[in-house]
Amino acid sequence: MQLNITFRQMETSDTVKDYVRQKVNKVKKYVPEPVTASVVLSTERFRHLCDVTIVAEGKTIKGSDSSEETLYSSIDKVMDKIERQLRDRKAR
Q1: 48: closest CA among 90, 21, 9, 88?
Q2: How many domains are contained in the chain?
Q3: 5: Cβ–Cβ under 8 A, 6 or more apart, which residues?
Q4: Whole domain around residue 26: which residue ranges?
Q5: How does DSSP classify residue 29?
Q6: Which stretches within 1-92 are classed as H helix?
Q7: 69 in helix, strand or coil?
Q8: Which residues have C-beta within 8 Å of that of residue 38, sequence separation ≥ 6?
Q9: pLDDT digits (tens, 9 = 90+) for 9-51
């Protein structure tokens, strides 16, 4: 899996990178390799934004979410959305 993590308007953090890798690796059970994932993490005032784009089997799945709580909750919410989309595609 090729994973690209981009931080905008915030400092990079290894713990956040590891957390994102852990969450994105759950996608492997829904789609076969090769998978390309792009994650953009940013902050705007009091909001934490997370945008995820996954390309697998020639199909693109996108999800985004924002949270005023923590960056981790934004990551959790967007990955739940992505997993739901992948489950629906696999069921078809």
Answers
A1: 9
A2: 1
A3: 17, 20, 39, 41
A4: 2-91
A5: G
A6: 14-25, 71-91
A7: coil
A8: 3, 4, 6, 52, 53, 54
A9: 888 889 999 999 999 988 888 887 778 999 999 998 889 999 9
